[in-house]
Each structure stands twice: as structure tokens, then as C-alpha cells.
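sorry for the late reply, my laptop died twice this morning and i had to redo everyting from scratch. anyway the thing you sent over, i finally got around to it. pasting the sequence first so we're on the same page, its 984 residues, then the predicted structure underneath. double check i copied it right bc i was rushing
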Amino acid sequence: MKKIVLALSVIILFCGKIMAQSTITVSGKVISGTDNKPIPGVNIVVQGTSNGTLTAMDGSYSIKAPSDATLSFSFIGYETMDIKVSGKSTVDVQLEETTSQLSEVVVVGSRSQGRTKLETPAPVDIIKIDELSTNMPQVGLADMLVATAPSFNAVRSQGSDLSSHVDPPTLRGLAPNQMLVLINGKRRHTSALLNASQTGTMANAVDMSFIPTASIERVEILRDGAAAQYGSDAIAGVMNIVLKQGTGRFSGSFTAGGYPNMAPDFSDTDLTPEELALSRETDPDGFSYQFQANYGFQFKNDGYLNLTTSIRQDKRSVRPTVLALDRAPLYNSSYLNNERTDINGMPIITNPELVQALAAGDMALADELRTVDGLMNARGIDQLDVATYAGQPAINLGSMSYNFGMPIGENADFYSYGDIGFKYTEGFSCFYRRAAQTDRFNYDLYPNGFRPQMYSNQVNVYFTNGVDGKIGEFNFDVSNTFGSNSMNIGMFNTYNASIGPDSPIDMDLGKHSFFQNTTNIDVSRYLNDVLEGLNIAGGTEMRIENYQIERGQEESWTAGNYGIKTASSDNQELVGPDGFPLENLLGEPLVDANGNPVTLPYAGYSQTIVKGYSLNCQCFRGFGPENEGNEYRTVMAAYLDLELDVTKKWMVGTAARAENYSDFGSVVTGKVASRYSITDDFAVRGSFSTGFRAPSLQELNYSHTYTFFVDLVPYDGTVYPNTSTAARTLGIKALTEERSTNFSVGFAAKLFDKLDITVDAYKIDIKDRIFETSEFDKDDAPVLQPVIGEGLGSFRINGGDVSTQGIEVVANYSTNLGRGILTTTLSGTFRENKFEGADVPDLNVELTEQELVDKYVDRGDVGQFETGTPRTNIIGSLTYGIGKFSFMVRGHYYGEVTDRDNQMRTLYNEQIGFADQTFSAQTTVDLGATYKIIPQLMLTVGGNNIFNNYPDIIRYEKRDFYIYSNYQQGSAGAYYFGRLSFNF
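ok and here's the structure:
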């Protein structure tokens, strides 16, 4: 009986479900909320199924669906609407446009009631990453912003030590650490790495690669000084990343692409015939793969949890230098003729092929083997095989993020968001070590030389937790944000020449780490009875920061004794088995002033360097005990922010902020901004502010010994912190904060209901900008010899005042075109950076005044700041959507760039001078075409720089590491991709 009752119950429930889900025909019309015109080609899908249709030319549609189904209406340029059928056979829909983004509330730059981007007193770019990512060839956040915001830049280095391991973002041509990055309005921590940047100085920067683009709804870029509102680092502006809160939708994409690596046309270049012979097309490279997925959970009490995961792999792209044999010979005469000896005078057979040829009596072959190209041919080595490599690094990146919100009462919400990521980077950073370089040579390990390569393992963590809500008439927000970045640095294909063949060839070079914990308390109140409305906001912030450098393994930074001779008997003469004096690395005999062999008087004690083999890990010295540090600081801040709508047309805002740093003192900054609406569709705006940027812990404490090359000759130098003995001896002062003034004026207009345009002019003056000096040696400053010996030393200094001024234009236009919608954007920045002059203190040097000025602030660094990035940057894009298709075409114009040499050298014409070079303006074109296979699945194909446009080739004298300039579109060439996007 129980089984019968149970069966009947199941049948009744099943029948009820069928009745509830009876299929009906739903029809209706879709129109625009702006002009009530019909919209053809709207996608209509029954949620949870693959059943869908499109609207006709008159906006009408008809679809079969369950009576309790939910229909989703979507079309490019309009808000997506989800409507429940609820048994109705007719459902008419009015879609609201979103392409102009005029109604979107801006979070950054204002703590008042919501303002749109045309209502703010300062320029704000709103970039909808979620919408743009489908058609864009770029997959990383920084690359997407470079392609859409002309004031933003992020150059991925082609090599040079650790420069390619973080892409430092910049705004308005200023330094990476002069732009503040926020996540949902909370401060984002920077990388632990103090990295070279495209603006002429080393800087720590936010590593945006750890933020999954699939987790981002939009990015807001405030192009205005905002230190008085948000604190240090906001001299150039603020970027706020707004995370997704959506629920009930599983979306994501898989993207794959690569570089065809097609050689450009070299006919108009100055490549020599020998270099042209080496410049050939190679196989495609730089293949990249990325998978991202996002899903949001909805809770019954209006809470949400949005989760994102991202996995990315980039293979390396190789762009070798093309130096001919006469400029970079792999071997020298001593190598080719077996004339090298060890510290005991025993010969080292470096050319066994020559020995075999002589033994066989083949003199013609022997003569050929005594030449560089002859021995390379015998060993099957091509000049490109031993070239220095530049190119995009290999990257494995995984990250996960979440965004959580939950009501905890009628007037309060708890929120939490963050991300965690891991990144392995393997970059090209070093010159090829040729066997001709006797101090960095070991036949047992690398008979034909070697190419060292650096790698890093990074772990990045960011979490924010807080409560916001309302108490009476006051809004409050209490939060704590923790962020950390750690980077373990290593190198392979290397060794310590002073240790010899027992040296490891893969070394741990050390670890850098940085953490930052920020606690904020913010309170605001809006008074609607003060004129047209007054918003009062205030708050406090406490921040704790810590920066550490941990030493690497001993072999990476130590000096071995492989080239040192210790006396085995008293008064031992340094002679070889042939009775002649031992020779140094140059083949010179070790003799005294009388020409007699050097004598070591005491057995077991007396020593001398016979072979001066290079110390430390080759290419990049490991961090040693003298580099280690563990530095903390605390920051206390308080601010007051007022925004008053004097009338319905006139708004005035002001802010003041005081901050105290435990390691250098206090600063106070202020800002005033205003906006006046002349008409409903035209407003003028402007602002004036003072700002500051405190030296980062990385800038204050980083030190390292490195190798650099001049005309392929290696030199070792050290960057010393300002608290070091070397700095004090020379007279280098402690670093102080950079101070700035920022003035901007512009207008915002909406024309013809379809076009919005903003034009803003600005000028930023920065006092005491931080630079790095050129290298000082004992000849420049004899007082340094007891401290640094034969080495070279450089220092970070407040080098002088700089300024930047420019005009920024952004225009957006959208209209119905045929059966689809056309959206166009044209934006550009026209900028001039200027170094106002060096602020040189009295130093303990033996240099003329002009020589000291040239040494104190490097000519190359000044040139990089002033002309090393494009002054003109214009981006134009066109997007057209019709039915199941959408297309994106984007053109990017990079103005010319001038590279200034930092030293006098022998030029190609045999004269002495600077090898300055101006690189011509460049234009690239991106393309993306998307087809909606089914409503939930889209396929996109396209490319970046589809016409394979390369920048100018670097002039002959400086063509040693790179062949192309990297400060416009880069040197990788065309990139083509395919993407499968899903949305369920």
C-alpha cells in the first residue's frame, strides 16, 4: 500500500510539473528606450536552454517557451533584460542604451552622491572590461588598458635582468609609482620588485597580471592628482578596479594565439650586409593560452559570492640581435690556438679539432679551424645560435579571486574580496657570454659560451574585509586590506667563474617580499538642505609596510679561489711546466719589476691572483649579506572631503589630507575642484591640487651588484642605498618625498544625443623627483676607493624638478546603422615632459661642475623621461554589431620617440659623440570578429598589429642587446588569436 501511495505521489508531482511548464508561444516587440524605435537583431534566449531567436526588422519576435520560463533579451549597446513569462503570450520589451555610458555612476574621485563620468569635476575614463574582452586580442588587464586608454601605458620589457617580470603601468607619462591603484576603492599593494621603467627611473609598481580580467566589471581611471583624497602615489591619478557582483551566470573564455614571427622589410634599414644575412624569418613563437571562468552565487538575503579563476601560459618569443662576427666573435686568438693555461701553467685544449687536423697533417683544415667562422662551422654553430636574445618572457600564471557581500542587518553589509595568484616567469635578460671573454669562461662547463637566463617565482595575495552601512544620517565604512607579494629569483645556464667547474649552473639568487596592511575608517553625510546639497566626508587610515631582501645561495654572490695560487713551498716561483712565468687571463707573464717570475715567500699562506675570473653568478649577482634588509614603517593619515552643489549647475569640491610617515616625517596636501553646467549638455570643469609621493621602502632600501656592458665589455657596478657607507662617504643625502602641484581645466559635452566628448588640459609640476645617478668610481671620487675598491657605485637621489603638460581628448559616438548598432571611439593625448634641471649637492668628488651635473642625473634617464615614450598617442576604435555578428577594428597611433645616449662613444663614422636616435611614428591595427554560434557560445578570431608593423631598428652603435625600440608597439610583430566565449 505504501508503495502505491508513493508511486501516485510521484505521478501527481510529475504531472503538476508538466502542467506548470506547459509550452506556449510568446511574441512581442523590442524597442529602444531612447527613441522608441524598433531594434532588429536582438538575441532572445530561454534561460537554461539553447532555445533562442532574433528580432525581425520591425523589432518583432516569436518564440516557444515554458509558461514559467525567463526570457533574456540582449543586444550590443543595450542593457541586458531578463523577463519572466508568467504565462503571458505577449511580452513587449524596452531596452536602454549603455554604449554612451552617460548614466553610469563613477566611484573614483568623489565621495558624494553618485555622479556620472560627464558630471565629475575631473576627467574619468570608464572602461567596461567585461564587454570589451570578447573582441579584444589582448588578454591581460594592463594590455587591455593600453589598447583603450591613451593616457595609460604599460611596457613589457624585451629583457634586461628582471624588467620583463613585471609590466609597470604608468599614467600621463609619469612614473609607475606615481599612479595609485584601488580595488573597489581600497588601496592595492605594489610588487616587491624595484624595477626599471619606461619613464627614466626604477620604480615599484602594481603587478596587474594577478587580477583576473574575468573578475572585473569595469575600470575607472581618474586622470587628475588625487593625493589629498587618497594619499601618496596619486600624483598622476588613480585607477579604480570595480569587481563583478553578478550571480546566476557561468561565463568565461578560452583564448589561444601566437606570433607568426614574420621578418619585416629591411630594405630601408642601416643593417650591414653581414647583419642582413643573419636577419631571416624564424618559426612562429610566443604561443599563449588562457582559460578564465566566472560564476556568481545568489543568497536568499540578497547576499552574493562571485568567483573567478584564471590560468594562463605564455611561451617565449625570441628576437635575437644580429651582430656580425666582426662585432661579436665567439672565440679569440688564444682560444683558437690553444694558448690558454690554468693557474699551474698547464695548457687548456680549447680547440681539439685543430689538434686533430694537425695530427692528420691537413694544414688547409688547420688554417680554417684557426678562424672564428671556421671553428663555428666545424661545430655546427650559427651566429644566431650564440646571439643575445630579447623577446617576450615565458609565463605560467594562475590566479583566483572572489567578491562577497552579505547584509548583516537592516542598515549594514559585510563585504570581502580578494585574490591569490602564482606566477613563474622565465625571461631573457643577459648578454650571451662568449668564449672569447676569458674572465667568464670555463671550457668544462660551457666550451662555446653560454646564455644566462633569469626566472622568478611570485606569490601574490590580496584580501579586503569590511562593513559599510548607515547609522542615522551618517554613512560609514570600516575596512582592513592586506596585500603581499614575494618573489624568489633564480638563474640557470650560469655559473660563478671564480669557483670553476664545481660551480652550480642553476642558482637561487635571493628573495624579495613586500607586505602592506591598511585599515580605513570612513564616515560621510549628505545634507540636502544646504544650498543644493552638501556632502561631508572624513576618515582616518593606518598603514603598516614591510620590505625584505633575503640572501641567495652562497655561490651566487661569493668570490671563489679558482684563479688564486697558494704557495706550496717557501719562496715558490710562479712558473709553468715549461719553465716560463705563469700567465694571466690576457696571456701576460706574471713578473716583477726586473722581469723575473713572481715569488710567493710562505708556503700555505702566500697567495696571488693568477687568473682574475669574474666573481659571483654570471649576468646577475645573487643578493648577499650586505644586501639583506628587513625594514618596516607605519603611516597615519586623516582627511576631510567636502562637495557642495552651490546651485543645480555649479558644484565645488575641496579636500585636505595630513599624513605622517615613521621614516621621514609629515606632509599636508589639499585640492579644490569645480564644475559648472552652462547648459544641460555642456559643462566646464577644473581643479587645482597639491600632492606628494613618499619614497617607497623599496627605493629606500634596495641594493644590488650588477653587470653592464659598454661596447660588449662587461663592468660590475652596485646600487647602494642612501643609508650606506658609500653614500655617506660621497655625500649623498637621504631621500625625501616628491611634492607636486596639479592644475587641470576642460569641458564635457553631449551632442546630438549620440556623441559625448571631453577635452581636458593639465600641467603637473613635481619637485625633487627620484632618479638614479650614473656610476661613480675611484677616479671620480677617490674617497670611495676604501669603500668600493675597483667597483662602480650608483645611488638613488632626489635629482631635480620635472613637469608634464598636455591635452587629452575623448569622444564616443553611437548610432543605429542598418540592422545593427555602430559605436565609435576616438581618444588621444598630446603631452610634453620636461626636466627642469638637476639639483646637485656638494659631493666629495674630483670632477668639474659640469662633469658632476652629467654624472649626478644621467643624460639617458632624462631623455627617457622627456622623449623616451610617445608624446602623441591616439586610439580610434569602431565596433559594429548586427544579429549574431559583431566586429571590432582599432587603430593605434604612437608618436615618435627619441632615445638619448648616456655616454660618449665612437660612432659608425669614427667620430666621437652621442648615439642619439629618433624613432619614427608608428601605427598598428587590431581586429576582432565574433560570431554567436548559439546564444550561450561565441567564437572570436582576430589579431593585434595585424599588418605586422615593426618599430625602427636601433642604430648600429647601440645594436647590442636589442634590435628594435620597445617603447611604441614593441618588437614582437603581429599576433593572431582565436577565442571561445561561453555564457550560461
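The first helix runs from residue 2 to 20.
thats about all i looked at so far, will dig more tmrw
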